Amino acid sequence: MNKKILDSKIPDGPIERKWDIHKNNIKVVSPANKRKFNVLVVGTGLAGASAAASLAELGYHVKTFCIQDSPRRAHSIAAQGGINAAKNYQNDNDSVFRLFYDTVKGGDFRAREANVYRLAQLSTNIIDQCVAQGVPFAREYGGLLSNRSFGGVLVSRTFYARGQTGQQLLLGAYGSLMRQVDLGNVELLARREMLDLITIDGKARGILVRNLISGEIERYEGDAVLLCTGGYGNVYYLSTNAKNSNATAAWRCYKKGAYFANPCFTQIHPTCIPVSGDYQSKLTLMSESLRNDGRVWVPKEPGDKRSARDIPESERDYYLERKYPSFGNLVPRDVASRNAKYACDEGKGVGETKLAVYLDFADAIKRLGENTIRDRYGNLFEMYERITGENPYQTPMRIYPAVHYTMGGLWVDYNLMSNIPGLFVLGEANFSDHGANRLGASALMQGLADGYFIIPYTIGEYLGNETLDAVSTDDAAFKESEDKIKDDTKKLLSMKGKRSVTEFHRELGLTMWDKVGMSRSEDGLKEALKKIPDLKEEFWKNVNVPGSGETLNKNLEFAGRMADFLELGELMALDALDRKESCGGHFREEYQTPEGEALRDDKNFAYSAVWEYQGEGKKPKLHKENLEFEHVKLTQRSYK
Amino acid sequence: MAKGIKLHLKVWRQAGPNEKGSLQAYTLNDVSEHMSFLEMLDVLNEQIIQEGGEPVEFDNDCREGICGMCSLVINGIAHGPQKRTATCQLHMRHYKDGDTITVEPFRAKGFPVIRDLVVDRSSFDRIIAAGGYVSMNAGNAPDGNAIPISKEKADLSMDAASCIGCGACVAACPNASAALFVGAKISQYSFLPQGEPERDRRAVRMVEQMDEEGFGNCSNHGECEAVCPKGISITNIARMRREYLKGVIS
């Protein structure tokens, strides 16, 4: 029964041959027929832009939608560090298998082996593709590509373009997309927000979007819909996501029947610039490379009010070095984040808000000289100073963890298709490759693999096999959905309550951060499951959304997203409560080793939790996709 | 926490593209020095909402200086007073108690106002569509290391490629020229062998599209470089001219 509901369609055969075997077996649509298909691509980040461009290159008609004023602004642009690929250019014994293994282990054994293996295989094609596009990767004097190391791995496989790798990769994909716009193969619809998925005869056949300038609801029909709308980190209000990043498109698909997998798997990045006050609107990440030379510490005594330089060496606690002597400051992201929280919970936090720890470069500067440190991290130090007004060459940086990425997302099979036929989900919006924790420099890899090299093949299996009758935007399904959206909009605008959307969002964010954040407990999650629905009820009675629905109205946009975050937050808490183990970014206080580390329960929880919407006010239904590990051995992660 | 500063704001309000706009005065009584400029505007908007008004619309997204969506002319300077800093990365510690700050949209024929401080920069997309890429389909690429490129050229290409497409160059230029934006993109590919086959065509098409969008000509004021949050050099404009000329006569 379960197997039929969740058919992952993983091909038979040895793992290194699965993708080839699959490609040989799936349908190819003839060039003449490709012209007859309309594909709607929502989102223009790495996954969306690369998918839209590649499908248009193949001859499909593509309409592409983005929420910003230009596709080039999607939040992939903000990725700093780099992109992994198993090129083994450094002759350091890297391989597809090693990248695969690192990714499965890094994900704490909660991802599908076959998907991750394919990702590792395709990683090398991505670098070739991007170089050919003219992406100016860093190079050595000999003219060949340069690599650097990233957290959690033993080889040097990360390709980068200064601290702006995401920007350069996205501009490459954006260029390819705009070329197809110029050729007339892609219609670009900017400043549009997807508000609903239209299903006809059980298949994804269209979307409704709001034109963010005129406020009009527009209808678009298509033969397939690609959701490339990113993650849901903004459910926490404060995160490293962009202000417009949201979960609405994915959430509305969920409410139309698409399954949502592992919603509680979220990544908290340890090195972000701390919150400075209530007005804070977002958090800024500092590259994890800083932990190579910076030492993390807090004062030994809680409540110590002295400035950092007045605290003598003997009264400091370099807690990561103390607790993890072999990995020290370079423990993985989840471990570093949790320990910063513990230090602050004990009252040892630093700075005005006491919600920060020091990242101190004094020793590195003494050892290597200020110039070397400037060479390595100059731009990051500059950014830190711009934001905080403090000079990190003289005073230690203050850092604190922040929500950064969501591993969970809509469930997809090996073809990246959701359980709704014709609805494909790519990039961070799906759940497939990173398990319970994503390794650094792997998000860019996944977005581009999905868009350039997977969907152009797997979409053929759907479009080639299905008989798709023509649909019209006059279909009742469009009207019904549009009526509902208009009702909701009217309601939001007419309530004229006492609290702004931002106030609600902040309150939800605080609950999510406290109860469904770095450390979760049964009591806390149960509390969240009470608080969130209460807040939702209050929201629909007491929110104040100014302005009208017929103009550009960002408060109205945010109000719609907020309504969805309230529901998604509840599902995240439910999923976290249900997963009675700790793994990766999901740390349940009840399940830890005697040393306080995450304790997995492979016997009972080696599955992806896949949730099915059952209707307003009803508990969603849980399906389990069991994960089988044939090529990696399940081990307890240890960093002592 | 220490009490913040008091600020007087004059903010451009315009209901729609064809409406008449004007500067409206607002006062904020408690602005923390740690706020970013956009967070200060968030606080203003919350205040306006509390008073029953309609908040000021302004574009923004990543708020870490890379997406290029934020804009604003602050006291007459695109992206405000701090060098090499986008509005979202400008912090209020650069202002003092009692200051008056005028906030206006980027103004140019090529950037029509949509509402308040939000402008339409789709002209930039159309310029990129005219040639800001290497024409290659996915799947055609040779091995990444099959095309060696000297570090010097790769670095120069990256310098030009770091443009965030915000349009401050246009807003600052007395001629509302987009030459720095276009020059940066043409330059990025001019340093790379991948850009070679389409070099002439790219320069000609992009420059022609720039003209068609209603941007003015460059007359070497250098205001664009001065406000560019990424410090893109005007040498890229000289290079654009050479590439264009070469393209036209070839």
Short characterization:
With 640 residues, chain A is an alpha/beta fold. Chain A folds into 3 domains: 323 residues, FAD/NAD(P)-binding domain; 133 residues, Succinate dehydrogenase/fumarate reductase flavoprotein, catalytic domain (Flavocytochrome C3, Chain A, domain 1, Alpha-Beta Complex); 124 residues, Fumarate reductase/succinate dehydrogenase flavoprotein-like, C-terminal domain (Methane Monooxygenase Hydroxylase, Chain G, domain 1, Up-down Bundle).
Care to describe what's here?
The complex is a heterodimer of chains A (640) and B (250). Chain A starts with a helix and ends in a 14-residue tail after the last strand. Chain A contains 18 helices and 21 strands. Chain A folds into 3 domains: 2-265 and 407-465, FAD/NAD(P)-binding domain, CATH 3.50.50.60; 270-402, Alpha-Beta Complex (Flavocytochrome C3, Chain A, domain 1), CATH 3.90.700.10; 476-599, Fumarate reductase/succinate dehydrogenase flavoprotein-like, C-terminal domain (Methane Monooxygenase Hydroxylase, Chain G, domain 1, Up-down Bundle). Chain A is an alpha/beta fold. Chain A is globular, with a radius of gyration of 24 Å. The model of chain A has no long low-confidence stretch (mean pLDDT 95). In chain A, helix 5 (96-106) crosses helix 6, helix 6 (113-132) packs across helix 13 and helix 16 runs antiparallel to helix 17 (554-578). Chain B is α+β, with helices and mostly antiparallel strands and 250 residues long. Chain B folds into 2 domains: 5-115, Beta-grasp domain (Ubiquitin-like (UB roll)), CATH 3.10.20.30; 121-249, Orthogonal Bundle (Fumarate Reductase Iron-sulfur Protein, Chain B, domain 2). Helix content of chain B is 34%, strand content 13%. Chain B has helices spanning 37-50, 122-129, 151-161, 168-172, 179-190, 199-212, 223-227, 235-249, and strands at 5-13, 22-31, 73-74, 77-78, 100-104, 113-115, 118-119. In chain B, helix 5 (179-190) packs antiparallel against helix 6, helix 5 packs across helix 8 (235-249) and helix 6 (199-212) crosses helix 8 (235-249). The interface between A and B is large, with 82 and 82 residues.
